[in-house]
C-alpha cells in the first residue's frame, strides 16, 4: 500500500481482504486498475474474482467510468492506478502474485486479466504495468511472457486414449474412486495416469489439469 501511494500518478482507494470484497469494492469505487492476488483465503479465489470484475466491466455503461477522479486499483484487493480516471472499459485486472505455473497464468488470462505480474518484480516494473493496464494494454512479467510464448510455440501434449478418458471424467468432477468405477480400472491405475497427465500438462492439481486441457481443447 505504502509503495503504491508513493508513486506519482497513482492513488490507492482501498484494500480488500477477500475476493468477494474486491469485487464489491471494484463495483463501488470504479478504479482504473485492480491489483489481484490469486490466493485470497476463504471464499472465492483471485481467478473467480477477476472473472466477476471483468464481466461486470464488460456490461457497465460508459458513463459509469468516473471522469474526474484519479484512477485507482485493488489488491488482495488494493486499489491504485494512473491519474486520468477515464480508463475505457475498466476497471482492468492486473494479477500480482507469486504463482507462475502455466495453469495459473492460463486461468487468470482466460478469466479476463489484462496483465500478470510476479511480486518479485522491481517497483518501477509494477508502476509501469499499472499504467499500461490502466490503458487496457497487456502487461506481463518477463518470465511470464516467456512461458506464454513457449506454450504457444510448443506442440500440444500427446495424451493416450486412456489418459483422455480419465481427463474427461476429471472434468466432470469425479474423484479417483468414481473414475475407477466408471472406467473399470483400479484406483492405483487412475493415480498413475493422473501423475502422467499432470506431467504432460505441466500442472500439479486436478483443477489445473482441467483448466489446461480446456485451454488446449483436449476435452472432447
Overview of the molecule:
This protein is of the alpha/beta class and 220 residues long. Helices cover 49% and strands 8% of the residues. The protein has ten helices and five strands, in the order ααβαββαβαβααααα. Strands 2-1-3-4-5 form a five-stranded mixed β-sheet. The radius of gyration is 19 Å and the shape is elongated.
Strand order within the widest beta sheet:
2-1-3-4-5
Detail the poorly predicted runs. Answer: 62-74, 77-86
What's the count of strands?
Answer: 5
Beta strand %: 5-15%
Sheet bearing the most strands, described?
A: 5 strands, mixed
Inertia-based shape: elongated
The span between the termini is 45 Å
Tell me the number of helical segments per DSSP (H or I, 4 or more residues long): 10
Amino acid at each position: 500500500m505504502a509503495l503504491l501511494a508513493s508513486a506519482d500518478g497513482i492513488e490507492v482507494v482501498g484494500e480488500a481482504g477477500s475476493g468477494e470484497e474486491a469485487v464489491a469494492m471494484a463495483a463501488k469505487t470504479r478504479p482504473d486498475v485492480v491489483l489481484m492476488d490469486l490466493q485470497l483465503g476463504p471464499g472465492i479465489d483471485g481467478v473467480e474474482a477477476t472473472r466477476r470484475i471483468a464481466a461486470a466491466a464488460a456490461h457497465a455503461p460508459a458513463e459509469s467510468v468516473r471522469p474526474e477522479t484519479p484512477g485507482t486499483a485493488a489488491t488482495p484487493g488494493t486499489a491504485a492506478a494512473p491519474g486520468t480516471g477515464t480508463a475505457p472499459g475498466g476497471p482492468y485486472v492486473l494479477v500480482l502474485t507469486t504463482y507462475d505455473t502455466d495453469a495459473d497464468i492460463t486461468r487468470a488470462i482466460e478469466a479476463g486479466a489484462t496483465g500478470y505480474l510476479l511480486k518479485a518484480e522491481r517497483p518501477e516494473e509494477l508502476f509501469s504495468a499499472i499504467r499500461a493496464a490502466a490503458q487496457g494494454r497487456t502487461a506481463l512479467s518477463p518470465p511470464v511472457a516467456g512461458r506464454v510464448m513457449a506454450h504457444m510455440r510448443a506442440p500440444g501434449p500427446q495424451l493416450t486414449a486412456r489418459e483422455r478418458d480419465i481427463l474427461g471424467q476429471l472434468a466432470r468432477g469425479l474423484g479417483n474412486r468414481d473414475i475407477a468405477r466408471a472406467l473399470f480400472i483400479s484406483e492405483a491405475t487412475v493415480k498413475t495416469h493422473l501423475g502422467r497427465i499432470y506431467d504432460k500438462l505441466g500442472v500439479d492439481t486436478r483443477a489445473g489439469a482441467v483448466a489446461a486441457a480446456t485451454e488446449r481443447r483436449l476435452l472432447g
